[in-house]
DNA sequence: GTGGTCTAGACCACA
DNA sequence: GTGGTCTAGACCACA
C-alpha cells in the first residue's frame, strides 16, 4: 500500500497517516488481519519520526481500526464494531461537504454519482459474528 | 442565524465559525447579499476575540463565500463561482468519510438516504449570469 | 495541590500524573472549573518533559476529566457525565483488589471500613443539569 | 479453571495471567494446595510463550500466592501470610478506584453493594496455624 | 502565552 | 524484534 504525506499540509502528519490507513482498510488494500509495517519500519520508509507513526497507530487503535499486540505488532482489526446509525460526527462532516458542494454549483445528482464512484472502490465488508 | 461554538473542540474556533457560515449560506439561512454582523458585534455575541472572527471572515472572503467592503461590512457573495467539477479536496474529504462510513457498517443505500436528507435542507441555488 | 512522582515506579510518569489529578478532582483539591497549571509550568515544577505532561493532559481530556481550550489552557470539567452503572473495567479492577485483600486476610468488614474512610475524603459531587 | 487472555490489552499477558490466578485463589476455584498446570502445559493451552507463563508463576511465587518445587511443580500456597493491615499499595489502588467511581457519579451505598456482591464470591479463608 | 506537533535519539518491558 | 515511554529542544497555530 502506498502512503504519501504532504509535509506542507495543515493536516498533521500523524493524522494524514491515520486517514490513509483508514482508507486503505475500506478499499481493501489492507485486508482484515493484515499486518501493518512496524512503527520503526514505516517511520524509516516515510522519512518521519517513530513517535509520529506511534501517534497514528495509537489513534487507530483507540478508534478500533487496528489492534496492537506486543508480540506481532499492529494488525488491521479482524472485525470492527458496526454501529447502529451514522455517528453524529460523520453526519456533521457530511453536511459541511454537501454545503460546500452545493455552493460550488454541484447538484445532488452529480454528487450521488461521485459517491457511487467512491463506493465502488470500497470493498470492506463488516464481518458479523 | 444561530451559531454555537465548542470551546473544547479540536476544531479551531475560527474554523468552526467559518464552517457554520458556509452551512448557513448553503441552507439559505444566510441569503445571497445578506449582510453579516460586524466583526466586533459577532465577537461580542459569541464571547470570543475579534481577531478570531476576523480570521474566519478573511478565510471566507478568500474562498469567495463573502465579500467585504469597508463601507458596508461583510456580505454573502452575490454569486459564487461554480467550478466545472468537484474540487480535489472535496473529493478527498468525501472519500475519507465514505471509508469511515463503510467500516462502521453503513452501506451505500443508507449513505445515499442520508445525503438526500441533507440535500433537502440546502436551498442555495447558484446565480448564473 | 501536591503531586509527587515516583521515577522508579512501574507506572509510567504520565499515568501517575493522570491518577493523581483524578484523585485531586474526586477529593475536591481540584474544584470543578479550576484551572490546571500549564503544560510547561507543571513540567518544570515536576522536573519532567512537557511531552509527558502533555500526554497526561490528553488522556484526561479524552476521558472527560478536563477540558482544554487554546485560550486558557486546561480546566477541570464543569460536569462529568455520570454513567448509569459501574463500568465493567471498574468492576474488574475492584474484583482484583478484593481478591487480594481477601487472600491477605482482610475480611469484608475491615474492607468496608477502609472504603468508608476513603469515601469520607471524596467531596466531589456530580452536577446534574 | 477458565483463563481468557486479551492479546490486545494494555495489561501485559503475564500480568493478566497472574491476576486471573489470584482471583481464582480468592474465589476458591483454585483450592489451597491445588496443583497448577505445568508452565509448558498452560503455555500450550493458552497459545502463548512458556516464558510468559514462567514470568507469571515467578511473580505469583514471589508474592507468596504459590509455591514451586522442582518435583511437583506449582501449587497454591497452603497458607498465605496475613498482614496486619492493608498494604499501602492496595490502599492506593482502592483510592483511585473510588475516586473514579465518585466522579462517575456512583455513591458510597452503591459502591458498598457492589463490594458485597464481589465479596460473596470470595470463598478463600486464610488458614491460621 | 497557550497547547500541538515533530524531531533525533535513547532506554526499557514484553514476548 | 516489537511497541511504549521519556527527554531536550524546536517551531507553529491559535487566541
TrEMBL record, chains A, B, C, D:
Transmembrane regions listed in the UniProt entry: none
Domain of life: Bacteria
SUPFAM superfamilies to which the protein is assigned, alphabetical: Winged helix' DNA-binding domain
Annotated HTH gntR-type domain residues: 11-79
Pfam families according to UniProt: GntR
InterPro entries the record matches: Tscrpt_reg_HTH_GntR, WH-like_DNA-bd_sf, WH_DNA-bd_sf
Keywords: DNA-binding, Transcription, Transcription regulation
GO terms for MF: DNA binding; DNA-binding transcription factor activity
Stretches assigned to coiled coil: none
Protein name from the UniProt record: GntR family transcriptional regulator
Source species: Paenibacillus roseus
